[in-house]
Amino acid sequence: MSADSNKPEILVIDDEVQIRRLLRMTLEEAGYTVREAETGQAGQNEVLRRSPDAIILDLGLPDLPGVEVLKGLREWNAVPVLILSVFGQEGSKVAGLDAGADDYLTKPFGSAELLARLRAMLRRIKPAVASNLFRFGTIEVDFARRRVTKDGHALKLTSMEYALLQLFITHRDKVLTHRQVLRELWGPKAEGQTHYLRTYMMRLRRKLEDDLDEPKYFQTESGIGYRFLSESAEQG
Question: What residues contact 171, with CB distance under 8 A and at least 6 apart?
């Protein structure tokens, strides 16, 4: 977050001066603080220095492929990432999403759509609990740093996996229907896309549960949704 806490900070990583200028004008007019980087390495350095609230990342960078920048980022950070690229091929889109991107927009793009997608990503990371730390079992969630550890070791969660975990913690011990979760994280148009949720639930369980056959924390409510059990949870 920028020095002005009311202005989310967006890092634009793109080598095209015209695109960066357009994005800066669009974002600043919408109330965001904008930082820029024209190479993948410079972008990675900016993330370390600034801890932006979201990143707009071009795939065609001069030094490193955008997908590689994203993969490296996901080793330690769950910041939301919107991929922006001239590549409209399905393969490029899938590669970016598989590497951990939250959304994808192809150049040329409309300002209204860009801002809508950005707002949707930022909604997923709003603080969901009063305290900064939440613990269950050997897992600790640091909301201030957006960091999750298990047995003291950092876990590599994508932004969407982190958002899903945060949603469950916020509504711990309550049943969340498939529709509720899909609407909250993917928007109203995704309420019927239950395969999205099944995929991310499996990923989250693989990273957080000790036994996939008998999950301790993320319980399936057959035909309804899921419940996060937090009997041994602590807030700090």
Answer: 228
9-123: CATH number: 3.40.50.2300
Boundaries of CATH 3.40.50.2300 in the chain? 9-123
Distance CA 66, CA 69 (A): 5
The tokens of 99 are what? 């590497």
Give yes or no for a contact between 192 and 210, defined as CB atoms under 8 angstroms apart. no
Q: What is the pLDDT of residue 122?
A: 83
pTM: predicted TM-score of the whole model, two decimal places: 0.57
CA distances from 183 to 109, 116, 121, 150, 160 (A): 24, 15, 13, 29, 13
Strands (E), 17-94: 33-37, 54-58, 81-85
Structure confidence at residue 222 as a pLDDT band (50, 70, 90):
confident
Average pLDDT on 157-183 reads 87
Q: Which helix (H) or strand (E) holds 220?
A: strand 218-221
CATH 1.10.10.10 residue spans of the chain: 133-235
Please give the CATH topology (third level) of the domain spanning 133-235: Arc Repressor Mutant, subunit A (1.10.10)
Q: How confident is the model at residue 130 (pLDDT cuts 50, 70, 90)?
A: very low
